[in-house]
Amino acid sequence: MPGPYCPSCGVSLPIVKVWQEGKTDRGGFSLNVKTGVVCPNCGKRLVILQHWAVVATVVAFLLYALLLFEAFPHAEEQLSHMSRPLAVLIALVAVLPVLGFESLISPHFSKVRPIKDGETADFPLDNNGSRDV
Ligand SMILES: [Zn+2]
């Protein structure tokens, strides 16, 4: 799934790479600071609006949880009979698809807007690392 796109030239932006290099919270769930991306085609500096990416992750997580509860209706009871480390391990493995979605798919749901004059943002993909505008 491509996108978001540069509003000037329409090129797909390297959003997943920004998400990987940028300052995110512990789980990579959201960007911690105002983060920007430079269009690789026209060089336009854009600020990432991540609200829809976060919403997409939450919705995906809820749908996945519903799916798991439908597929394994007695999972909670079965997990309670297991040793705690095994139950934790199973829970961690079960959450892996959501983590993959979160890091590879949900960033594409973010939007971008041109950076304003005097506005600062972190640009993790700049050649010299993070820097303000
Ligand atoms: Zn562009």
Task: Give an overview of the whole structure.
The chain is mostly helical and 133 residues long. The protein has one domain (15-114). Helix content is 42%, strand content 9%. It has four helices and three strands; from the N terminus they run H-E-E-H-H-H-E. The chain has helices at residues 15-21, 51-71, 75-81, 84-104; strands spanning 36-38, 45-49, 111-114. The protein has a three-stranded antiparallel β-sheet with strand order 1-2-3. The longest helix has 21 residues, at 51-71. The chain is elongated, with a radius of gyration of 18 Å. The structure holds zinc ion. Zinc ion (ZN) binds at residues 6, 8-9, 11, 39, 41-42, 44.
Write the topology of this structure.
Layout: H1 15-21, E1 36-38, E2 45-49, H2 51-71, H3 75-81, H4 84-104, E3 111-114
Antiparallel strand pairs: 1-2, 2-3
The chain binds zinc ion (ZN).
Zinc ion (ZN) binds at residues 6, 8-9, 11, 39, 41-42, 44.
Ligands, deduplicated: zinc ion
Total separate domains: 1
Q: Outline the low-pLDDT stretches.
A: 128-133
- Structural class of the secondary elements? mainly alpha
| Helical fraction | 40-55%
- Based on CA atoms alone, the radius of gyration comes out at 18 Å
- Average pLDDT over all residues: 85
Strands, total number = 3
Termini separation comes to 29 Å
The general outline is elongated
Strand line-up across the major sheet: 1-2-3
**Secondary-structure element sequence?**
HEEHHHE
Brief digest:
This protein has helices at residues 15-21, 51-71, 75-81, 84-104, and strands spanning 36-38, 45-49, 111-114.
